[in-house]
């Protein structure tokens, strides 16, 4: 199809024949995105540390399509390379990489430990970089000028506005990931790979469970759209960014937050 022709609506979001990796796809936002990609027709690999979580996720997600789960501790460089090798064993072309696995550490300024920097930066910032490095040949093989390969980094609105909780290394890691997204987008665009980030607002997940149990109603009541995020919001943005519909975006940070950070007044 020539570039200036329009695509039938249904095909705009079709991911049939695409191969995707979603890190941290066994839970929360990663699982919401993996489900969306599967329903749009992609073959998906999900990954996280725990073998039992992987087995459970593969079981749950298999209802929606062809999914495989591979355990790996992505806070370690060698584990990122091992996962990349296993993903490449499934296909020499990777169409979609979702760097979603992440960790948060909340502790007051006075007692915030070294470990809270190392653990969070390793997983939230270095690991997406290591995976891009290891998977770049496969992404380059998949991308074309008309239909680039996609890297989707999961940032946070904690790097867009200032959250009330003490999350120094988390906010710093996500701000750095947003900028890394732009840096990589500029370099990889000419190689037919787009790089975008999603900055979620509050979504129910293991990471957010205690916050939302205590404050979920208050947060929802203050949000311009008067609710928390839900599964379809994340499935939708993943499919958009991964499909033909999203093929002309790169270097963007897309807030999916019900207006919480995007309309913050500062007072
Ligand atoms: N939920 C929100 O409101 C929200 C808002 C903004 C941004 N985010 C971002 O969204 C992403 C997903 O978070 P979530 O809220 O969905 O949390 P979650 O439910 O706790 O999911 C985190 C996922 O990452 C995996 N993971 C954790 N450490 C890992 C490691 N060392 N190696 C590999 N996988 C690891 C976890 O599985 P295992 O424990 O089995 O490893 C799990 O699958 C994170 O990057 C987070 O910062 C979330």
TrEMBL record:
<dbReference type="Pfam" id="PF13561">
    <property type="entry name" value="adh_short_C2"/>
</dbReference>
<protein>
    <submittedName>
        <fullName>3-oxoacyl-ACP reductase</fullName>
    </submittedName>
</protein>
<dbReference type="InterPro" id="IPR020904">
    <property type="entry name" value="Sc_DH/Rdtase_CS"/>
</dbReference>
<keyword id="KW-0521">NADP</keyword>
<keyword id="KW-0560">Oxidoreductase</keyword>
<comment type="similarity">
    <text>Belongs to the short-chain dehydrogenases/reductases (SDR) family.</text>
</comment>
<dbReference type="InterPro" id="IPR036291">
    <property type="entry name" value="NAD(P)-bd_dom_sf"/>
</dbReference>
<dbReference type="InterPro" id="IPR052178">
    <property type="entry name" value="Sec_Metab_Biosynth_SDR"/>
</dbReference>
<dbReference type="InterPro" id="IPR002347">
    <property type="entry name" value="SDR_fam"/>
</dbReference>
């Amino acid at each position: 199809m020539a570039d200036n022709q329009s695509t039938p609506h249904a095909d705009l979001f079709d991911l049939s024949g695409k191969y995707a990796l979603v890190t941290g796809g066994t839970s929360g936002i990663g699982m919401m995105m993996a489900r969306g990609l599967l329903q749009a027709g992609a073959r998906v690999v999900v990954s996280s540390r725990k073998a039992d979580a992987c087995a459970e996720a593969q079981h749950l997600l298999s209802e929606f399509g062809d999914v495989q789960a591979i355990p790996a501790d992505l806070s370690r460089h060698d584990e990122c390379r091992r996962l990349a090798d296993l993903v490449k064993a499934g296909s020499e072309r990777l169409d979609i990489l979702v760097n979603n696995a992440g960790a948060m550490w909340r502790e007051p300024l006075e007692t915030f430990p070294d470990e809270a920097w190392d653990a969070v930066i390793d997983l939230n910032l270095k690991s997406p970089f290591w995976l891009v490095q290891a998977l770049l040949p496969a992404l380059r093989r998949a991308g074309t000028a008309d239909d680039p390969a996609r890297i989707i980094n999961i940032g946070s609105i904690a790097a867009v506005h200032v959250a009330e909780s003490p999350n120094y290394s988390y906010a710093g890691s996500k701000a750095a990931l947003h900028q890394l997204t732009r840096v990589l987008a500029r370099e990889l665009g000419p190689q037919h790979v787009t790089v975008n980030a999603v900055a979620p607002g509050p979504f129910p997940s293991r990471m957010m469970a205690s916050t939302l149990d205590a404050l979920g109603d208050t947060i929802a009541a203050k949000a311009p759209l008067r609710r928390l995020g839900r599964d379809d919001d994340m499935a939708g943005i993943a499919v958009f960014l991964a499909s033909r519909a999203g093929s002309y975006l790169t270097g963007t940070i897309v807030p999916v937050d019900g207006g919480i950070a995007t309309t913050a007044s500062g007072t």
